[in-house]
Design goal:
The protein has 315 residues and is of the alpha/beta class. It is built from eleven helices and nine strands. Helix 2 packs across helix 11. Catalyzes the condensation of carbamoyl phosphate and aspartate to form carbamoyl aspartate and inorganic phosphate, the committed step in the de novo pyrimidine nucleotide biosynthesis pathway.
């Protein structure tokens, strides 16, 4: 595996290798010496043409814990919004000797274009492209679910997960559906019809318009941010109506199974898709997802650039 552009780049064993490697790396991070020398002398470039403080810092921390050199390349707006500009940027990165480029771009397919090109030879990691995919987020979500709900096996066989809210604009939802299905979980998408993408019936997931019907049946509830910045039209009457039917509040929290966990990829719209008291409840693993993101991104860099999983006990 040379690039990570989409969950469809992974087979089940690839995904489990990354999750297992992240488990080992998390143990290193919990120890006194938090750095490994694995990627010393390698250069990782964070190329973010779209804002995301959380993901960029997570990848930066991951690379530094593996002793890599990190270059943060801010390329907002029009500088890499066109194919020719992306080519020029890639050639610059090649000249810098980039071993891997972590790219976030508002255009779906930009990471693929970079990887398919002859412009650079390093690995390309998709950190979110348009409304297409966000594979590292899905991997950290699966890692979190396995940690809390895994039944001793390497996968998520038989677990039930609800993904709730703005599926239409969510690259996180698409990547999660693909990965959770690959790992044996059963996914239900819960959203108003206006916030489901065309062709969603071809996704490996059930669809429901009734959160109250689904919430008591699942092991994990993943709330999605309502991406109002991507909405040019009226997708629901108002915030109050949306919260009433699709928000996770204390009443719905009480309906959940005792072991079930609450997730959110962040940033949250508190009071819209999730109530503040629910986000801060003992069931919530939202803060832990952020911490797990560093371990997963270390694992992705480790597997792509070191060429092998970290063996248990090798730390």
């Amino acid at each position: 595996m040379r690039h990570l552009l989409s969950i469809s780049d992974l087979n089940k064993s690839d995904a489990i290798v990354i999750l297992d490697t992240a488990t080992e790396l998390a143990r290193v991070s919990d120890g006194q010496v938090k750095k490994l020398p694995t990627l010393r002398g390698r250069t990782i470039v964070n190329l973010f043409a779209e804002d995301s403080t959380r993901t960029r810092i997570s990848f930066e921390a991951a690379a530094k814990r593996l002793s890599a050199d990190v270059i943060n390349f801010s390329a907002k707006g029009s500088s890499i919004s066109k194919g020719e500009s992306l080519k020029d940027t890639a050639m610059t990165l090649q000249a810098m000797g980039a071993d891997a480029v972590v790219i976030r771009h508002s255009a779906s397919g930009a990471p693929q274009r970079l990887a398919d090109s002859q412009w650079m030879t390093g690995s390309v990691i998709n950190a979110g492209d348009g409304t297409h995919e966000h594979p590292s987020q899905a991997l950290l979500d699966a890692f979190t679910i396995r940690k809390h709900l895994g039944k001793g096996g390497p996968d998520l066989a038989g677990l039930k997960v609800a993904i709730v809210g703005d599926v239409l604009h969510s690259r996180v939802a698409r990547s999660n559906v693909l990965l959770l299905n690959l790992l044996g979980a059963h996914v239900t998408l819960v959203a108003p019809p206006t916030l489901l993408p065309v062709g969603v019936e071809s996704w490996p997931a059930k669809v429901s318009y009734d959160l109250d019907e689904v919430i008591s049946q699942v092991d994990a509830v993943m709330m999605l941010r309502v991406q109002q910045e991507r909405m040019n039209d009226l997708f629901f009457p108002n915030a109050r109506e949306y919260s009433r039917y699709f928000g996770l509040n204390s009443q719905r929290l009480a309906m959940m199974q005792p072991h079930a966990i609450i997730m959110h990829p962040g940033p949250m719209n508190r009071g819209l898709e999730i109530a503040a008291e629910v986000a801060d409840s003992a069931r919530s693993v939202i803060v832990e997802q952020v911490a797990n993101g560093v371990s997963i991104r270390m694992a992705i860099l480790y597997v792509l650039l070191a060429g092998a999983p970290l063996e248990a006990g090798s730390n």
